[in-house]
Amino acid sequence: MYVQDNYREAADYIKSLLNITPEALIILGSGLGQVANELENSTLIPYSEIPHFKSSTAPSHMGRLVAGRLAGRDVLCMQGRLHIYEGYSPADVSFPVRVASMLGATRLVLTCACGGINTAYNVGDLVMLTDYINLTHTSPLVGMDITGFDARFVDMCHAFDREYIALAKVEAHKLDTSLADGVYFYMPGPQFETPAEIKAARILGGDLVGMSVVHEVAMARRLDMRVAGFGLVTNMAAGILDAPLTEDEIFTEGEKARIRFGGLLKQFVARM
Q1: Strand, helix or coil at 44?
Q2: What is d(CA 241, CA 192) in angstroms, rounded to the nearest whole number?
Q3: Separation between Cα atoms, residue 209 and residue 49, nearest integer Å
Q4: Residue 42 and residue 111: Cα distance in Å, rounded?
């Protein structure tokens, strides 16, 4: 269990290295970290150097914060996120979100690589997250009220900001980029889901499946941060196609979508 001083020590260390006050935290998922390389006047901070931060061990996740200017806004990017499947707790995974809020960020923009459950999707599609399903019932907020942080209960009726969803669609239209929407179904991994699990997820209303997002969003909403979530369909989920799933396709599709996805993300950030 983290205490207030842990978050403050991390925030103070990061602040000592920055010459900006970040407006937003942008979390870049698997295969999507290249956006951070486009920040102007960037400062690079490895997670390993930040007090109480955990290290990112997922493939292609560089494990560093990149602070700078993107599309005219001062932002803090996580070039690689943390996951439960790495052995971390929900509190570990969401730790950077609370630290970013302490640094001044009032918005959270998440990106993630996803498996497509909805058969209307194709590999390479961009999808705006409209809600999520977390049947593991794990939360980074468990016990935080006991240690003097916040009130216990958090409204999740609009986990993803409705105005941001509408804005992203407007900007996608301007770029002639297709942007679907859908519900994210969380599975902790690290194994890919079984066909039976994907069938159940579809019945329950899931359009996408992935191994991240939910704990970061819960913490952001506790802090009244506005949240936007962008998913990239890097593969069709188990049982949708008669083909094995591999992590290589995640990186391949991420690279293919780099220009298209990066363009939309920058347009959105400029106007959020």
Answers
A1: strand
A2: 14
A3: 32
A4: 20
Name all contacts of 244-253 with Cβ < 8 Å and 24+ positions apart. Answer: 245/115, 245/192, 247/30, 247/59, 249/123, 250/30, 250/31, 250/113, 251/30, 251/31, 251/59, 251/60, 252/31, 253/31, 253/113, 253/123, 253/124
Retrieve residue 164's tokens.
């941001």
Amino acid at 76: L
Please give the single-letter amino acid code of residue 59.
P
Chain centroid to Cα 152, Å, comes to: 23
Which sign, positive or negative, has the C-alpha torsion 147, 106, 211, 132? positive
Q: pLDDT confidence of 101, banded at 50, 70, 90?
A: very high
- One-letter amino acid for residue 2 of the chain: Y
**pLDDT tens-digit profile of 34-72?**
788 889 999 999 999 999 999 887 666 578 999 999 999
Count, residues in the chain = 272
Token pair 């993803």: residue = 160
Our CA angle for 244, 249, 251, nearest 5°, is: 155
134-146 per-position pLDDT tens digit? 999 999 998 887 6
Assess whether pLDDT exceeds 80 at residue 255: no
